[in-house]
Design goal:
Layout (H helix, E strand, L loop, with lengths): L3 E4 L3 H16 L8 E7 L5 E7 L2 E7 L4 H27 L5
Parallel strand pairs: 1-2
Antiparallel strand pairs: 2-3, 3-4
Length: 98
Amino acid sequence: MGIVSDETKTKFGKEFYDYFYGKYQEKKLNARKIVKIEEELSFGRTTRIRVVIDNDLINEFVSRPDEDFLLYMAEDSIAKLIKYFQDVEKQKNYITQY
């Protein structure tokens, strides 16, 4: 199974990480690179959460203290991560000509 790095700083960031990782395992994803869940402080009392793989931004959003919102964003981030993996596989199949 691939590695998912937890670089969160708040309770809500940790909850998002837990939801995201649960969905990651449920879908049996296996990234060959490290998936990072990053969190940085934003305006006021909010934080910005990012899902990053190999310096490519997969998803980014401003967190809210709402469990349903965090669950939705975890599912959305997993869907975008799956699309990213599919795009990478498609790129491998293309022949690059210079």
